[in-house]
Amino acid sequence: MNKALNALLKQLNTIVLGKSEQISLALTCLFCRGHLLIEDLPGMGKTTLSHALAQVLGLSYNRVQFTNDLLPSDILGVNIYDRERQAFTFHPGPIFANLVLADEINRASPKSQSALLEAMEERQVTIEGTTHALEEPFFVIATQNPQDQAGTHALPESQLDRFFMRIHLGYPPEDAERALLMGKSRREAISRLKPVLKPEHIVTLQHQITRVTVTQPLVDYVLRLLHYTRTDDDIPNGLSPRAGQALVHAAKGWAFLHDRTHVLPEDVQAVFPAVAEHRLGGHAPLGSAPLSQRVLNAVNVL
Predict the structure, then answer these.
(1) If phi over 0 gives left and psi between -120 and 50 gives alpha, with beta otherwise, what is residue 81?
(2) What is the SS3 string spanning 65-96?
(3) Closest CA to 228 of 139, 293, 149
């Protein structure tokens, strides 16, 4: 499996250039059965990353463009009356895929946002009293533009918490951008990617990650991080126990991805910004470090 993971990372790094950390975080999120929020400007590679992930992982893929007139049924599906059978037939919506890209989620109405987020949480859809299980693995990547606020509905903090991680892609390094400008189109490159894993392999990986070892000193370090966020006056929202569980699970996933059977403090530190920043609320003062980084700097490992 380690060979497969290395091949997976190698292929993805040829598509999303100069973003190996973000690729690893996205894979960690998937392997931990979480969902990912990517907050960034247009043209940074959000769609490219999601499409490439689906291609190399052998996952079914759907993209939903969120707009203010999008209805919950446009996402989940609808029952349509079949005259020949004289019965209603369920027509599944685009959420019935292994990997779903929810593009510009903050442009949809709160009602449509809630429909998606509830399905993410429950991993099933109920239409007119009938429950339909979603595919496994099931991974949602949602995107939003942080600078485009006109005509948008910001996700409330309680719904942001449904996302296991939030990441930013940012501008590529100069050498990566040079290669991007001189190379072939990303769409053509993605179409040539070879699947490295199958959906059933990912489900197996998701179970294996739960067996990664976490020691008592490591848990104590996580507890100190959580406590600091709850007692510092400059942090609007202290991390909840559920956020603490997500942090430990993400650290297990990061350790597994890097071929370790136990979690190190470095694993916690690697995933902490992606797991914690969107849950802490507020914004760091201009020119200062993000809140999550300030927490890491303030809390001793031992």
Answers:
(1) beta
(2) ECCCCCCHHHHHEEEEEECCCCEEEEEECCCC
(3) 293
Tokens at 99, concatenated: 């990997």
Q: What is the pTM of this model?
A: 0.94
Domains of the chain: 2-199 (3.40.50.300), 210-298 (1.10.8.80)
Q: What's the sign of the alpha-carbon dihedral 94, 132, 250, 283?
A: positive
- The answer to whether residues 264 and 213 touch, using CB atoms and an 8 Å cutoff, is no
Please give the Cα distance from 145 to 152 (Å, whole number). 10
In 3D space, the residue among 162, 256, 164, 271 whose CA is nearest the CA of residue 214 turns out to be 256
Tokens of 43: 């043209």
pLDDT 10s per residue in the chain (302 long)?
678 899 999 999 999 999 999 999 999 999 999 999 999 988 899 999 999 999 999 999 999 999 999 999 999 999 898 888 888 889 999 999 999 999 999 999 999 999 999 999 999 999 888 899 999 999 999 999 876 666 678 888 888 999 999 999 999 999 999 988 988 778 888 988 999 999 999 999 999 999 999 999 999 999 999 999 999 998 989 999 999 999 999 999 999 999 999 999 999 999 999 999 999 986 554 444 689 999 999 999 98
299, 228 contact by CB (below 8 A) = yes
Q: Which helix (H) or strand (E) holds 139?
A: strand 139-144
State the maximum Cα–Cα separation within the chain, in Å, rounded to a whole number. 70
Residue 12: C-alpha distances to residues 18, 36, 120 (Å): 10, 17, 25
